[in-house]
């Protein structure tokens, strides 16, 4: 479960970076 949560957190972080800093 911890591994899944870590992966989801990384995915959300990357998604936020792409949304707020596309360049």
What share of residues is helical?
over 70%
Structural class: mainly alpha
Q: What is the CA–CA distance across the termini?
A: 33 Å
Encode the helix/strand succession as letters: H
Give an overview in words.
This protein is mostly helical and 23 residues long. It is built from one helix and no strands. The protein has one helix spanning 2-20. The chain starts with a helix and ends with a helix. The model has no long low-confidence stretch (mean pLDDT 82).
Task: Describe the structure in brief.
With 23 residues, this protein is an all-alpha fold.
Set out the fold topology.
Layout: H1 2-20
Jot down its keywords.
23 residues, mainly alpha, 1 helix, 83% helix
């Amino acid at each position: 479960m911890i591994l899944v949560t870590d992966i989801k957190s990384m995915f959300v972080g990357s998604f936020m970076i792409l949304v707020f800093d596309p360049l």
